[in-house]
Amino acid sequence: MKTLSLKRKVKKSLLLVPLLVLSLSTGITNAEPISSKDLAEQSVNNYIKAVQEGDIYKAANWVIDERFSTAEEQLNQYKEALISNPFSEVNLKSITPNPDDSYTALVELTRKDSGELNTVSYPVIYKDNSWKLVINGQETMSKKVEKLTKHQNSVVISPLAATELGSYSEFLLKVGKSAYSNKFDMTENAVGVTGWQQIAGSVSDTTVRYSIVKKGLFSDDAYGQTFYTGWNYWDGAAFYITITTSSRTYSGVHLKATNEDIGNSIAIRGHIYGN
């Protein structure tokens, strides 16, 4: 009798196995798939978290930073930027789809010194089997710097009596695009810039914005800027401008030139000086 009872229990258990497998497979089939938007959002948060944890190698996996030509240059700048990062809090506010199947992430940055907010938008694209945030020269600026740029001091730095701090080679700036000088350290709270800018085959004036920036983990943070409108013979007389940065000097900065012309590419080159 006991043997018969045991056989019935085994048979009953074997019958339950297919039902259990069916139940599990049904549950998997009905699971909600993770959307592209969710994955794109997670990639942005992964980048933010990696930066906040100080892991620049992990951060580099979640970003395409178009400001750098090599991974080594990017990582070296990120190491420096961890120390000088001007933002205490970084929050993803929204992520919205674009017609080309990419997304736009809106990120809110809180400044350490003043608590003021800077809001920056980033493309998020699918590349190399994952979603990545794209940094392509987005800029931030404190209200203090913004106020300064409207009322700049007239500091004179004569190239003849000054030290050359850096230069920017010949670039062809497309509309809205930027180029950078080499990295340099300021010697006082202003730099002088001599340069040339022109539209090839034309004598029309062009407008370029020249800024002193530091390449940060979330933006080019601007410390001062000015605009120059004009046209120069490529081998003729250079223009001269100064850019002031309040009462501070900065190290590890770049001169950034941005094409503000409506419809033309602009050829530029020049030098940066300090007293």
From TrEMBL:
<keyword id="KW-0732">Signal</keyword>
<protein>
    <recommendedName>
        <fullName>DUF4878 domain-containing protein</fullName>
    </recommendedName>
</protein>
<feature type="signal peptide">
    <location>
        <begin position="1"/>
        <end position="31"/>
    </location>
</feature>
